[in-house]
């Protein structure tokens, strides 16, 4: 799924122009990101839950050279599908 796909769906369902649909898709995506930053997650009923998880610092291996590399602690996004989504797919 891409922003272009979301834009096309909005344009087809509402009958608005491509520019307005692109703006709406951009606002939708930025609103989801802001919600995840503020609350650490976002839930779409009957679709699933996006959550922000912290990862610990760790040591990894460079596959080309085989030497150890330090990986910093960071945050990542996880997705858990709803039971309805699992059944339909």
UniProtKB/TrEMBL annotation:
Pfam families referenced in this protein's UniProt entry, alphabetically: Bac_DNA_binding
CDD domains recorded: HU
Keywords, ordered alphabetically: DNA condensation, DNA-binding
Signal peptide extent: none
One GO MF term: DNA binding
Domain of life according to the entry: Bacteria
Keyword Ribosomal protein in record: no
TM annotation in the entry: none
UniProt KW DNA-binding keyword: yes
Family label: Belongs to the bacterial histone-like protein family.
Protein name according to UniProt: HU family DNA-binding protein
Organism: Teichococcus vastitatis
């Amino acid at each position: 799924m891409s922003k272009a796909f979301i834009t096309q769906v909005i344009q087809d369902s509402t009958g608005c122009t491509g520019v307005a649909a692109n703006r709406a898709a951009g606002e939708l995506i930025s609103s989801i990101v802001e919600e995840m930053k503020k609350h650490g997650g976002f839930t779409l009923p009957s679709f699933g839950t996006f959550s922000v998880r912290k990862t610990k610092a760790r040591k990894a291996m460079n596959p080309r050279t085989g030497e150890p590399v330090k990986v910093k602690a960071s945050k990542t996004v996880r997705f858990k599908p709803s039971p309805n989504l699992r059944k339909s797919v």
